[in-house]
Design goal:
Length: 147
């Protein structure tokens, strides 16, 4: 699980462990190019991969921090998908949470709504979704914004 120590990830990890699931936390150190092989190894024993990674949104969004928000979501998702694609035995399921901001600011929307919001966060979500759908066809995938 990437993002296991974040707010949602820590609660999800506890919930899954209480039900007997083994969690393999994936740290940031495996996302540097020279350690990508270790990322693939870490994921090789997993039947489900959960990606909750992303820099916190509750900071001032300077141009530099916008880049960090983007890279922490898109770059991480891309690396995970590439690791999954490189494996002979693929996981059954890949779950990736995009972020708030996918849907328009006004209205009530659900996962099956095709309407997308405007602006930076909506773009980040769309780009993350574009990475998620690159998983091999035998791997089911899902995310809160997947239609």
């Amino acid at each position: 699980m990437r993002g296991a120590t974040g707010f949602v990830g820590s609660h999800l990890q506890k919930f899954l462990q209480e039900r007997g699931h083994e969690i393999v936390p994936i740290g940031r150190e495996l996302f540097v190019p020279e350690k990508r092989e270790r990322l693939s190894e870490a994921l090789s024993s997993c039947d489900t991969v959960i990606n909750l990674a992303g820099a916190p949104l509750n900071r001032r969004w300077t141009a530099e921090y916008r880049r960090e928000i983007y890279d922490s979501r898109i770059g991480t998702t891309r690396a995970i998908v590439e690791a999954i694609r490189s494996q002979e035995a693929k996981p059954d399921l890949f779950i990736s949470a995009s972020a708030v901001g996918y849907y328009p600011a006004k209205g009530c929307y659900g996962e099956s709504d095709a309407r997308k919001g405007e602006g930076f966060l909506a773009d980040v979500c769309r780009n993350r979704e574009a990475e998620v759908i690159r998983v091999p066809p035998q791997v089911r995938y899902g995310s809160p914004a997947s239609p």
